[in-house]
Specification:
By secondary structure, the chain is of the alpha+beta class. The protein is 39% helix and 30% strand. It is built from six helices and nine strands. Strands 1, 2, 3, 4, 5, 6, 7, 8 and 9 form a nine-stranded antiparallel β-sheet that branches. It starts with a helix and ends in a 10-residue tail after the last strand.
Length: 219
């Protein structure tokens, strides 16, 4: 390369090098944030809450068994994000399971901040099923609070939960199986129940119902 040609391309080389360095720095920053979040999450899961978690109360179990749609709230940097999700309740492990593409905003949020809120409502067809199971007849909604884990791909645990999720939502396979679709497990720590009389009752894994359990005495 002669001097004239080198001088012509010299500024372009510096611009290209600067862009590459900036891209690498952004990727390293994102990986560092993910690493910090994973360490914080690992520290959280080391607590005793999960080991001591009692079974969900009957009112919550009945709705979780019957429903398949929920609203999932995630947040990052004080910016909330809401998603309509198919979910599956795995009773033997007391987990809520759903799937999401890894290139979505909610997946990015979950990796950075695992804290979630989940809203379920007993729509008329679910209410009828609940009445048949003897779990009350009033209308109510449940907000569940907990922490989510985005599971590694192709592990025995993630594929077992994926299969259970598909069995509960057979018409939603396009959202459950496929490249880049992650399995997310949510451990629920507390709940708030609001009935059709606008009465709100709290529940937590450590203290149970705050007062008498709602819905149990409704006919």
């Amino acid at each position: 390369m002669n001097t004239r040609t080198r001088d012509r391309y010299h500024p372009l080389l510096w611009v290209t090098a600067g862009a590459v360095i900036t891209l690498i720095a952004l990727r390293l920053h994102k990986k560092r944030l993910a690493w910090k979040a994973s360490r914080a999450q690992a520290k959280y899961w080391g607590g005793s809450v999960i080991d001591l978690r009692p079974p969900f109360p009957r009112e919550i179990v009945t709705l979780l068994d019957s429903a398949s749609l929920c609203y999932l709230s995630t947040t990052l940097d004080n910016a909330p994000h809401l998603s309509l999700m198919n979910f599956t309740y795995v009773r033997e492990r007391e987990l809520l399971v759903f799937t999401t593409r890894r290139d979505t905003k909610k997946c990015d949020n979950l990796l950075m901040n695992p804290r979630v809120a989940i809203l379920l409502h007993d729509f008329p067809h679910l209410r009828k099923d609940r009445e048949l199971k003897g779990a009350g007849s009033g209308s109510f909604s449940i907000t569940l609070y907990g922490a989510a884990r985005v599971l590694d791909e192709k592990t025995a645990d993630s594929e077992e939960l994926r299969a259970k999720h598909l069995a509960h939502n057979p018409e939603q396979e396009v959202f459950i199986n496929g490249t880049g679709i992650a399995v997310v497990a949510v451990d629920v720590e507390s709940a708030r129940v609001c009935d059709d009389l606008d009465q709100v009752t709290g529940w937590s894994v450590s203290q149970g119902w705050a007062g008498s359990a709602p819905l149990s005495n409704q006919n």
